[in-house]
């Protein structure tokens, strides 16, 4: 049974895509079977592994459209690309924006991705979903499919403002479409030389306690270079600070979910 993580924050540019790829590649490095899903019309995750164009046909939009119809066998059709670094990717598509506009008119659209992932749950240890900077229907779909939401957050004053809206959305999803959904926060782009950042990190620790991953991802320009090179940081600069921190995060996440699995959390059915 895979562990499905949605990487969500409606605030833009807070390292959702960077975290999805770097964490995914770090988990794969540890021998985990990883599937990445680029649910963002911007396609940044796909571009970050060198995929610049969606397939001409049979891509993510057709896949989701299939899932919305609740076919019984979702395994027969999956727009899967296999990439170096041990990652499987369902690449994004700018046309996701048009699909998103239609979703509210479709009955039970929230379950579209959940229906599809049921068919492949045993093929992967981790499924990571990269979401767009919005709480729109595609993100609702991801939140309904996920076991857990990882919220990347920067340690600055304004970053905290959007968090309550996001947490309220998660609580609503938990009530209506996904009883087992949990969330955690990951402090990213942390500048240890900045006093305000240190104070904000302490506040996040005070407010969220165990929901904040102990691993903190610092500022590291090698991450920007890795995205340009189309490689995950653990491959592009394996000894960089960011690579080491994302590896540490992967270890922390694996330890957490192995514990949870032992207690049967992912066996919960909906
Ligand atoms: N720890 C870091 N240190 C320095 N730069 C970083 C770090 N993490 C991410 N970046 C850079 O910040 C920019 C935004 O990151 P990213 O695209 O991952 O954010 P995002 O939340 O996915 O954005 P969007 O909301 O548009 O989807 C990118 O150029 C990325 O390379
Ligand atoms: Mg992104």
UniProtKB/TrEMBL annotation:
Transmembrane segments: none annotated. It comes from Thermanaerothrix solaris. Pfam families: AAA_31. This is ParA family protein. InterPro entries: AAA_dom, DNA_Partitioning_ATPase, P-loop_NTPase. Residues 4-181 form the AAA domain.
